[in-house]
Design goal:
Layout lengths: L10 H24 L18 H22 L4 H23 L6 H22 L5
Helix pairs in contact: 1-2, 1-4, 2-3, 3-4
Length: 134
């Protein structure tokens, strides 16, 4: 089947999906730092209280789900849309603990992470609506 002009994926989609993958890969590196696989700049800040198991699980689902979903978007896979929403929900659970229960207070990074995750999920919706995802 020939690609029609209406179905052609715009360049901005590829750029944003690529940047989203890089952003989420950095988040994955911070997750690996938190669980002790990576050290240095990826280690948790000193004095941060230990994250409960449920928040750590949400962190893992949010980060790794986002990485896989961005790969899916670059593959133009339909399942990426749902996975972006699942990852967003998990990140909301994780950041709810960080922002409201850990004693750390409101952190600009948390707000940015949640806004970017929401925008990427909405991009997946747009890709589905426009027929860019197969």
């Amino acid at each position: 089947m020939a690609t029609t002009y209406e179905n052609r994926v715009p360049a901005w989609f590829w750029i944003v999906a690529g940047l989203g993958l890089v952003w989420n890969a950095i988040g994955a590196a911070f997750y690996l730092g938190y669980v002790g696989v990576l050290g240095g700049p990826f280690a948790p800040p000193p004095g941060m209280p230990p994250m409960p198991v449920w928040a750590t699980a949400a962190y893992a689902i949010g980060v790794w789900g986002s990485v896989v979903a961005m790969i899916g978007l670059l593959m133009r896979a339909r399942w990426a849309r749902l996975l972006l929403w699942v990852a967003l929900a998990a990140l909301i659970v994780d950041w709810a603990w960080v922002l409201f229960m850990s004693g750390a207070g409101i952190q600009p990074l948390g707000i940015c992470v949640l806004l970017i995750a929401l925008l990427l999920a909405l991009m997946g919706e747009l890709g589905m609506k426009r027929g860019w995802l197969r």
